[in-house]
């Protein structure tokens, strides 16, 4: 692999999922996890319809924004993402990731609206959704900035990592060396090697970080997993 291609692979971003934090103390949890070395705050938005769980919405993002300058990586597990773009812009969200399964007819308009609002656009896909479904969104004239490959069925924290999703990550990395590729669900020191060696660079981890005795150590281990894989470029071999 030549040096130019190597340079194009974006570096590690560790994004603890606030779903596993103490929702009654979000501001202090965000401050704590930033001090532990996190790059992004991953915010799981669930509507009780697209997934069988209810979490938080724009009002909570807005409140938390008053207490942190960190990048808020919002993952919308909702049936109608278009309905929430304006609210999330106003609330101070940094990234807006919608699911491809519910956006087949309007993803172009959705990406345009997200980017026009100053947010980064991401597209997520469930474990059973073929990777080809996101190719048009990456190759569009107004492309998404990130693809989130779900490594569990969306809806809940604390589930087991699904290694069968790794070929999708590797196919994406080989096709798009420059792309931010995020994995979400069951990531931990035990599973980071598989995900990083497949080519993921944005790592979401909820229970493994917030449930740890030493969250800073876990974040360091996750980052090292990505750095090691990038040093050997094993995902291209
Ligand atoms: C699941 C969410 C994840 C979840 C990850 O639907 O999208 O972000 O919080 O939690 P862990 O890391 O515990 O699997
Ligand atoms: Zn998520």
TrEMBL record:
<feature type="binding site">
    <location>
        <position position="44"/>
    </location>
    <ligand>
        <name>a divalent metal cation</name>
    </ligand>
</feature>
<dbReference type="GO" id="GO:0005975">
    <property type="term" value="P:carbohydrate metabolic process"/>
</dbReference>
<keyword id="KW-0464">Manganese</keyword>
<dbReference type="GO" id="GO:0004750">
    <property type="term" value="F:D-ribulose-phosphate 3-epimerase activity"/>
</dbReference>
<dbReference type="InterPro" id="IPR000056">
    <property type="entry name" value="Ribul_P_3_epim-like"/>
</dbReference>
<feature type="binding site">
    <location>
        <position position="75"/>
    </location>
    <ligand>
        <name>substrate</name>
    </ligand>
</feature>
<keyword id="KW-0413">Isomerase</keyword>
<feature type="active site" description="Proton acceptor">
    <location>
        <position position="44"/>
    </location>
</feature>
<feature type="binding site">
    <location>
        <begin position="206"/>
        <end position="207"/>
    </location>
    <ligand>
        <name>substrate</name>
    </ligand>
</feature>
<protein>
    <recommendedName>
        <fullName>Ribulose-phosphate 3-epimerase</fullName>
        <ecNumber>5.1.3.1</ecNumber>
    </recommendedName>
</protein>
<dbReference type="InterPro" id="IPR011060">
    <property type="entry name" value="RibuloseP-bd_barrel"/>
</dbReference>
<feature type="binding site">
    <location>
        <position position="17"/>
    </location>
    <ligand>
        <name>substrate</name>
    </ligand>
</feature>
<keyword id="KW-0862">Zinc</keyword>
<keyword id="KW-0479">Metal-binding</keyword>
<dbReference type="GO" id="GO:0046872">
    <property type="term" value="F:metal ion binding"/>
</dbReference>
<comment type="similarity">
    <text>Belongs to the ribulose-phosphate 3-epimerase family.</text>
</comment>
<feature type="binding site">
    <location>
        <position position="42"/>
    </location>
    <ligand>
        <name>a divalent metal cation</name>
    </ligand>
</feature>
<feature type="binding site">
    <location>
        <begin position="155"/>
        <end position="158"/>
    </location>
    <ligand>
        <name>substrate</name>
    </ligand>
</feature>
<dbReference type="GO" id="GO:0006098">
    <property type="term" value="P:pentose-phosphate shunt"/>
</dbReference>
<dbReference type="InterPro" id="IPR026019">
    <property type="entry name" value="Ribul_P_3_epim"/>
</dbReference>
<feature type="binding site">
    <location>
        <position position="186"/>
    </location>
    <ligand>
        <name>substrate</name>
    </ligand>
</feature>
<keyword id="KW-0170">Cobalt</keyword>
<feature type="binding site">
    <location>
        <position position="75"/>
    </location>
    <ligand>
        <name>a divalent metal cation</name>
    </ligand>
</feature>
<feature type="binding site">
    <location>
        <position position="184"/>
    </location>
    <ligand>
        <name>a divalent metal cation</name>
    </ligand>
</feature>
<dbReference type="Pfam" id="PF00834">
    <property type="entry name" value="Ribul_P_3_epim"/>
</dbReference>
<dbReference type="InterPro" id="IPR013785">
    <property type="entry name" value="Aldolase_TIM"/>
</dbReference>
<feature type="active site" description="Proton donor">
    <location>
        <position position="184"/>
    </location>
</feature>
<keyword id="KW-0119">Carbohydrate metabolism</keyword>
